[in-house]
Amino acid sequence: MSRLLLLLDKPNAHHQTARAQQLHRLHRRAMRSLLTALMVVLVGNGIVGAATVVAQEPPPRVLFARDILPVLSANCFACHGYDEAARQADLRLDLEDLAKSEQGEGIPVVAGDPERSTLWQRIASDDSDLVMPPPDTHKALTDEEKETVRLWIEQGAPWQQHWAFAPVERPEGNLDDQVARRLAQAGLELHSPAAPQVLIRRLYLDLTGLPPSVEVADAFARDPSPEHYARIVDELLESPRFGEHWARMWLDLARYADTKGYEKDLGRTMWPYRDWVVTAFNQDMPLDQFTVEQLAGDLLPEPTIEQRVATAFHRNTMANDEGGTDDEEFRIAAVKDRIDTTVQVWMGLTLGCAKCHSHKYDPISQADYYRFYALFNQTADADRYDDGPLMDVVSAAQQARRAELTAEVTRRQAELDEQLAESLTLEQQGPWRLPRFDRLTAASEAKLEVDAQGAIQVSGDSPPEDVYTLELTLPPGTYRVIRLEALTHAVGNGVIGLGRNPQDPNFVVSEFTVERLGDEPESLALEEPRADFSQSGWPVSAAIDGDPKTGWAVSPRPNERHQALFNLASPLEVTAPTTLRVTIAQHYGNRLVLGRFRITTSGEDPSRLTPDSESESVAQARAALQETREQLNQLNASVPRLPVMQELPTARQRETRIHVRGNFLEPGEVVEPSVLPAFHALPEGAPLNRLGVAMWLVADENPLTPRVWANRIWARVMGRGIVETEEDFGALGSAPTNVDLLNWLAAEYREQGWSLKRFLKQIVLSRTYQQSSVPSPQALAIDPANELYSRGPRFRLSAEAVRDQALAVSGLLSLKVGGPSVMPPQPDGLWRSTYNGQSWIDAEGEDRYRRALYTFLKRTTPYPSFTIFDGGSGEVCMIRRIRTNTPLQSLVTLNDPVYLEASAALAGRMIDAANTPEDRAAWGLRTALVRPLRDGEAAPLVALYEAARARFVESPDDARALIATCRGTGSQEPPEELAAWIVVASTILNLDEFLSRR
Asked: pTM value?
């Protein structure tokens, strides 16, 4: 009998989750009760002695949040939960007062009496017509789950809030205390520390994504004191490599990419946002500030450039440039993506389920969804081709140079204006005359004013198209020619041009007409138009052809003065002051309308007047100005233009309606903006907009944000989250394997001011983190998946770390920080996109070996070696990467150009480091693995070298081909020697231990 009890006490490795282990204990204790009863019978019959009687244990305490709610969520709430539209039999089980009240056939839960509880009756029934869940749902409770429900009702059916929604309460003790207590419950204890060199490699990879040098690791091994270890931690946290490594986690969440997505998948300048993220991590920006600036930096009082750059977080949504698509449809899709991402990233909830119907498992109605949506529905972006609104991201050096060139342009413009004024004075003495303007109007109500040079300056409203109407008075005389001068002016954003659109400072004069005013307006016919320059396909003759779809334009020379002369078909003889009306119609659109122009007249013989007659002084001043403008334009062209968030003005705010079944073409009732009411309220004084949402997410009343973020950071360091479903902290998510540990971490992270660096330091200084990853047999049996953290975790490195480590060990890695994304080699032909003329051009120089973070990411064809190692495409928010293990991964590290070139570089280092094959192989292996080698560990590599060398001696062409492929041409070694060491180096870079963090 004692052996039977021991067998029942033996842990079952199958019970891997916390909940499964709890059910195992329930079953074990029930069996103990059964055995106790059996022993009483045996004693009573004199079969065994009374000394062998085992004391009966009380049944285990069932906790609703831990043991019951997951069962109800998975099996019952879809039909008997929050979603009113899907609710069956008018029965709800998600609310305590309803679950314990008369509903339909009886009371679902009668506290203390399972037999009277209709919930128990239905789940325990053998009748296929009565049992719940119904067989056609393909769901069924296990015997253990049924027994757990029965015990819970029997124990009084105490109700609890879902564990993730309950306030965060810090348990006593430190981090290690939480882990040790949980291990003790399973009969385990914290493992011994990892070897010094192994620990330092782990630390470097976790904090910077790059390996340490052997020298650093050996120095720590000579002095493995806590003080020395803490100094190394501090150094790594202050390294610029820290921000580059931890930014990758955030960019997955931010669905960062360098293209727009969908069919054309055109390029998009997003890298300034990526650099902002790196800087934010390096500066240890607190999470609350990190949250506010990204969700609502533009709504802060007097936002800085950096705060507006931060808002590109939600401009990472995809945009569809395909012809014929509905911009409003894809604008709405982007807004929905933003709110789904926001709630999942900060609160770990699957909000998107409620866009079509009320959430089946969590307390979020469809109306709640669209009220929250309304808070994000007021931004200016609208799936436009230009990706606006955009912001120039100017560096300090560019800002200084721009100011210098702008001042120079202003100075030279003044010189030109002075020359033009003198020229005009001469013209006044010659053939051209300025009229007197009586009335100037614009159809758009833009403001037209005559300046000191007699030019008409336009300001105010800047519509897509416009019509200028000028009434002018001519003194007595004869008039034969009218001249229109398009004059340069400051368009905006440092651009000098003729029109009013800084992105295209051209103009299009669709129709130029002249009328003589009197009792009845008399149209004056114009003929023989001529200009100093006309754009191809847009001749000056089109300005008087009567067709508003044609016109006169001057691209690609919109940054210099131009003139057009129009002859009057019949000379105009004026004997008394006469009023003319000149109309300049500009119907092209895109704000291609004149911004500064002049009208003059002449009575000279038209054959003597030309539009390009300019004095030498004017020509010289214009050339000097043009040269400076070109420098300024080149500078402006080099400034990245980043898509950012921008709120609509109050008068243009959108009305928000529920989308019936999620269809924006089927609007339902109007909703007012609100945060999710089932959780906490908006903080006092917080505005009802995106800024208020950001404040709401990091408010002290929100228990989800600290739990979700603490769990996320823990998972990146420890290989798996305390809550495995990082993406779902709702009722259907995984239960925490150690809720006390999660609460301690959440409280610590929030209470220390949301500092990631301080939080990480707490983790890496702990005994839990520093444990050896080699499991004891007992830990392997009881905790096979390391859910209880009975040892240090061992897992394959991320796609980016695999690449960066190979480049670092080989000596090729460039440590250049920031800037435009680069294009390391990838297979030819991957960029064949419909209607996309862009191409992938393999980088050379140091850009070829930049950190993986800086690799150009095209959504429709992401960098293949990263996706094979479970990287994302940036199309959707990636909460966590699921690690896979496929043959394709080995093909990447064996054949990708990056790894071949790293192998050649490492081979060169091995050759330079030692003279004998044994020493070279040992040096290369030690450099890659960091730890000291075991006796004879390098011998297989020496054997491989000898075999490879012998083969290459027989096939020298193969040796030369391998060297050329790997770009190993700089070595002075014989081809067969270098090629053999490349094979050895490639083998080292493909070792499981090298590709793993342990």
From this structure: 0.78
